[in-house]
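Async update (no meeting this week)

Hi team, since we skipped the sync, here's where things stand on the single-chain job. The sequence we agreed to prioritize is pasted below, unchanged from the tracker. I ran it this morning and attached the output directly underneath so nobody has to dig for it. Comments welcome in thread, and please keep replies under the output.
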Amino acid sequence: MTNESFAEHLGVAVRTVAYWRERAEVIPRPAIQEILDAALARASASARTQFGLILAEHSDGLASSGPELSLIVPADVASLTAWITSTNTSDAAIEHLERAASTLGEMHTQNPAREVLADVLQLHGKAQLLLQGGRQRLRQTRELIRLDGNLLAHASVLLGDVGEDQAAEDYGHAALLCLQEAGASRSTAWYALAKTARWQHHYAAAADFARQDFETGPVTPMSVQLASYEANAAALLGDRPRARQALSRAESIVDQLPAGDNGLSPWSFPAGRQAIFKLSVLLRTGDPGGALREVAAADERWAAGDPRAPGTWAQVRIGAAIAHLLQDSLDGAVEQVGPMLALAPELRIATVTGWLADLDRQLSWPRFAASPIAANTRQQIRQFKADALPLSAARETG
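Output:
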């Protein structure tokens, strides 16, 4: 086109087009860039293909001028190139979704599970709209599928927290498929599936899901969490050797990784959360003294300034109470569990009520049956669970 015809095609002044030709390095203002983008979107497939090829050559430092740019591209190659270069999204939009997903992860332990779940599902819907539009570059498609796989895994964890086990399992399997398709780490999906299987009392399956990360993936910070899950599930299954072996593996992985995992997302595994799993394994393998040492260490880290998630703190307090009962110290147990019984109803997720269910069973033992202190504590536990949000059903320990 001439300067005049191109200006008319875009709806801009002729002097603007002339200026572009004089200064090829100029970057158009955002408003003009939108006009150019719209023109490119309306262009024919062959025009878009030629534009993409010229742009690729320019990016590689191979841009040329004159007749060499007048490429004639076979129809099948033109169609393929147009498909690869066309997109209904942008890298910036994908980065925005990634940041939003990260923010929701950090909210996981600080906000009520149902509120976070609603936001996670909304973000999943946005990712699906882009994917179902079907016009991303291949790299962008893989990134969106990976991102959505992690969102599905997060939703699975949250659904388990509010007692929706079947939905949690479905979302976990969907997350696994997405992450496999994207060629990404499947750690978050294995985590979600292991957690759901444990809630469903499928302890062998839970241990096997958690071990998959060790069998198939590189060692990452999540490897500590999954090894701890395997240890916990094996302890619940009654397989003490496997529980101890997995816990030992978790501790050895911690030594290989940089210190400082103080995040609050479900994928973080700071010292406080590690303490919960160590507590569960030590209590179920007959070491209440070791469990109380873990509690003391967690309290020291929180006192030193480590972030303290309410649910994590509550579970540690209950685990400490159970350890005291195993040492026949009812007073010590009441002292530990008393403060957490004031936890806000919206924070009384299934993991917390599950620990309390185990404590309640321990308080029903014959040696505590005649104690008014034990009876009063059991009544407080029942009230705590009654005031919890619906579907925050009782769970097994850990």
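Quick observations from my side:
The chain is about 70% helix and 0% strand.
The radius of gyration is 28 Å.
Reply here if anything looks off.
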